[in-house]
Structures are given as structure tokens and as C-alpha cells.
Amino acid sequence: MRPAGCLALALDDLARAGFIEHFGVSGDELRSFDSGRTFRAGQVVIREYHRFEGVSDPDDMSIVYAIEGEGGARG
Whole-model pTM? Predict the structure, then answer.
């Protein structure tokens, strides 16, 4: 796990590894904002994740997921 201030570095590393699409939850599906494709739970795999906590407040937390969907969509 990286220190809390390294969120931007983690995002840069993931982009260099090909995780460049942006996903969001839409109902019970995951939607790629870039391609418009949608994925159901069985069509995606979480390849890695990074968890970041605030230095002074553990409730100040972020999690970044590296997701790969069917057909090679990575974000």
C-alpha cells in the first residue's frame, strides 16, 4: 500500500499499464464513459486495487480499482 499522498502516482502507473478507460456504476452495470459499453458483474475482473487513507482522519479514504472487462476494456 502506498502512502496517502501517492494517489496521483498510482493513477499514472495504472494508465501506463493500459488502464485508461473511466468506469462508473449505472444501476446494476458498470459503464465505460469512454466507449459507452456496459458490463455486468460476471464480465469484469478487478486486477488490482490501491487504498489510501487520510493522514489525520481514517474516514478520509479513497480506493482505486484497476478493472478489466470482457473484450480487453481496462480502466
Answer: 0.78
